[in-house]
Amino acid sequence: MADTPAETTADPATAGRPSAEEVEEALKNVIDPELGVNIVDLGLLYGSKWAEDGALVLDMTLTTAACPLQDVIEEQCAQNLDPMVDEWRVNWVWMPPWGPDRITEDGRDQMRALGFNI
User: Which positions fall inside the MIP18 family-like domain (predicted)?
Assistant: First the structure.
């Protein structure tokens, strides 16, 4: 007798939602206007999760709390997330504070290519 595959059922609450990896990949198109590197590789994205109301919540920070380009970054997020999700919002996180140690190796390579000594 042949084994039959286990039956799987999709959770209707998560059906059609992009994965964390897909969200992260989309946010790699969001470029910090001052540094010229995407927010994922800069380490500005602390994580993402789905809220009970069905919205995608991005835990993000900025290089400084007084960053004047917050609106620009949010607009770029909108351009990249709106085709993927119906509703999303940013939860701005200030602790732990951002530091250069959060930059990925890819981000460091991008910064070096732009002339930064990092």
Answer: 21-82
